[in-house]
Structures are given as C-alpha cells and as structure tokens.
C-alpha cells in the first residue's frame, strides 16, 4: 500500500485524494469470487441499491474479514489516520455486471474506495466538478458529506472502506 506524505496530509485535511496504484492486487477479483462469497455467507450480506436488471448495483455488507487483504486495508487506514473505532466501520463491496451511472449522493462516513475490477469514474461535486478514474489497485478518499456520483464504465467491483470517526471533521 502506497501513500506519500502529500497524500497523507491531503486526507488528514479532508481533501478528496486520488491515489494511482495504491495497492498491488495479485488476486483476480471477478464475479466467480463474488458468487463464492455469497455461497459461504448469510444472504443478508447482499443488497441491491436500485431496481432494474443487469444494471443493478449490488452491495455486500461487512466483508472486512472475508479475505486477508480486506482486513489489511482496513487496519492500515485505521492506524495511519488514527481513527477512533466505531462499530459501524468496515469494508463493503459494491459490484455491477454492466456499465451504469449512480445517483448523486454523499456518505455519512469517510470512505476509501479501492478498485478491484473494471473502470469507474467518481465525479466529485464542488466549486469545480472533477472526475477521477479508478482502475484495479487505485484508491480515492472521499470525506463524509462530499457530494459525488459513481459512473461505472465497465462491469466493476470496488471495496469501500468506511470510518465513522469524526476525527477528520
């Protein structure tokens, strides 16, 4: 996991921060892996975030301990930014089988998004609207309350690591 001093300071200062090649991911994250997760876990971990067909976005809740790398990402960010643990903190997976566009929203937690498969644009709204391209191994930090939209250019899988600690507020 690679963060330079400027990126760490940017995150500490609640700035949207884009990190190319944050993690070297050797595992192949694909939809067969998602299927294996679902077979092994309680079906309540999966939700659809909208209604449709192949354009649905699926969310797997509480996957922090599914794979060692999820726990490693979670612990690394927790320790690097000295978040106060909250029972709602954790790793979730979002995936979709087709390109799609999500609604503009903001999150109640500070989120670190890591690309696992596919190409996704995160459009962040502010004084200027800025698009950030996330590919496998890339990361973007989006502080709580920052409006953004997800534009999946391909089928995709991302890990969303959220911390509810208000330390960055």
Folded structure, characterized:
The protein is of the alpha+beta class and 169 residues long. The chain has one domain: Jelly Rolls (Sandwich). It has three helices and eleven strands. It has a seven-stranded antiparallel sheet. The radius of gyration is 15 Å and the shape is globular. The two termini are 24 Å apart. The model has no long low-confidence stretch (mean pLDDT 89).
Search tags:
7-stranded antiparallel β-sheet; 169 residues; Jelly Rolls; alpha+beta; 18% helix
- The N- to C-terminal Cα distance equals 24 Å
CATH superfamily: Jelly Rolls
Order of helices and strands: HEHEEHEEEEEEEE
**Helix count, per DSSP?**
3
Strand segment count: 11
Condensed summary:
The chain has 169 residues and is of the alpha+beta class.
Write the SSE topology.
Layout (H helix, E strand, L loop, with lengths): L4 H8 L4 E3 L11 H10 L5 E3 L9 E3 L7 H13 L9 E7 L3 E2 L8 E8 L2 E5 L5 E5 L4 E4 L5 E5 L3 E8 L6
Antiparallel strand pairs: 1-9, 2-3, 3-4, 4-11, 5-10, 6-9, 6-11, 7-8, 7-10
């Amino acid at each position: 996991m690679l963060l330079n001093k400027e990126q760490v300071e940017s995150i500490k200062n609640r700035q949207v921060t884009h990190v190319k090649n944050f993690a070297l991911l050797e595992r192949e994250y694909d939809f067969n892996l998602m299927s294996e997760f679902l077979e092994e876990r309680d079906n309540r971990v999966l939700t659809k975030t909208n209604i449709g067909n192949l354009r649905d976005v699926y969310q797997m809740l509480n996957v922090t301990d599914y794979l060692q790398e999820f726990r490693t990402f979670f612990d690394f960010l927790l320790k690097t930014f000295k978040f106060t643990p909250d029972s709602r903190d954790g790793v979730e997976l979002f995936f979709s089988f087709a390109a799609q566009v999500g609604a503009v929203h903001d999150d109640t937690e500070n989120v670190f998004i890591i690309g696992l498969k596919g190409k996704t644009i995160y459009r962040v709204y502010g004084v200027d609207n800025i698009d950030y391209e996330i590919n496998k191994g890339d990361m973007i930090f989006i502080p709580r309350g920052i409006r953004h939209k997800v534009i999946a250019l391909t089928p995709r899988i991302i890990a969303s690591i959220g911390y509810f600690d208000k330390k960055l507020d």
